[in-house]
Amino acid sequence: MKRKIVVALGGNALGKTPKEQLELVKNTAKPIVDLIESGNEVIIAHGNGPQVGMINLAMENASKMEGSTTPEMPFPECGAMSQGYIGYHLQNAIREELLNRGLNIPVATVITQVIVDKDDPAFDNPTKPIGAFYTEEEAKKLAEEKGYIMKEDAGRGFRRVVPSPIPVDVAEKEVVKTLVDNGHVVITVGGGGIPVVKEGNSLIGVPAVIDKDFASEKIAEILDADYLIILTAVEKVAINFGKENEEWLDKLTVKQAEKYIEEGHFAPGSMLPKVQAAIKFAKSKEGRKALITSLEKANEGIEGKTGTLIINE
Ligand SMILES: Nc1ncnc2c1ncn2[C@@H]1O[C@H](COP(=O)(O)OP(=O)(O)O)[C@@H](O)[C@H]1O
Ligand SMILES: NC(=O)OP(=O)(O)O
């Protein structure tokens, strides 16, 4: 059965350095091409937290070196750079994997802007972790030296946080639709999209990082997708995650998922946005389904053999 699937790729699909990313995307391309080979229309979105943080820090450090001629790079431009850098590696890996299987399907990355509300309260409360992980001591030093806001990230260390507004619309949605309708494989809303606000006919970049799970949900609704698949490092969603009574879930109804959110089962900044995006998509139209699973299990997941399926029943 031909399905339209938006696939959201997590950090484990990309790695932390250009060399690592170039290697990792070869593996990432395989399950994506499996889905295409099975006859599905696939649209790809991905995160950029580590990458946008790395680019921004590097540009800032370079601009502050004595005698530097490197300009300061505004944050939205760093987001655009991260889309290009990740899209470049991903589209080549997918293209090559398709060709290796005798499939001559065009692949393209669309530099995508996502419209946000300039009055979104998220601008006053930075929550989105970006860049590398630091110890508490290193984090304090960075906060003092650079004025960064540093927060603990789901038990994994300290990271810089930036505002993360909710996606309202996708500026390039007609371009993406046209490419998808013509059978092209499209990489879009990379890093949640470059956040922009509308001012008359202008789109103005704002310093923020949109959550890619929410941006993927938005483009999935816009494209009238059947499935939103969020690929991360775990095969299933758990309740009591990491505890003795941990329980991995095959299926979640929207009602159950909302109850588990209230009970605090999903860590903010990691599993919580995925479950929230899955709920929103499942609720958006009858028959729409969301699946959270690991990269390696994507194809088995879509066949109903694994992963956590989120449905509205
Ligand atoms: N309830 C939960 N069930 C499963 N994983 C959870 C849960 N709460 C937190 N996690 C953690 O969240 C991680 C996914 O979040 P994250 O690494 O931020 O995602 P991404 O793949 O988008 O980079 C999982 O690998 C797991 O370690
Ligand atoms: N933009 C975004 O959500 O990135 P990560 O998935 O890397 O956090």
From TrEMBL:
GO terms for cellular component: cytosol. GO terms for molecular function: carbamate kinase activity. Transmembrane segments: none annotated. Residues 4-293 form the Aspartate/glutamate/uridylate kinase domain. Belongs to the carbamate kinase family. It catalyses: hydrogencarbonate + NH4(+) + ATP = carbamoyl phosphate + ADP + H2O + H(+). Keywords: Arginine metabolism, Kinase, Transferase. This is Carbamate kinase. It comes from Caloranaerobacter azorensis DSM 13643. It comes from the Bacteria. Coiled coil: none annotated. It holds the Pfam family AA_kinase. Pathway: Metabolic intermediate metabolism; carbamoyl phosphate degradation; CO(2) and NH(3) from carbamoyl phosphate: step 1/1. GO terms for biological process: L-arginine deiminase pathway. InterPro entries: AceGlu_kinase-like_sf (IPR036393), Asp/Glu/Uridylate_kinase (IPR001048), Carb_kinase (IPR003964). The keyword Glycosyltransferase does not apply.
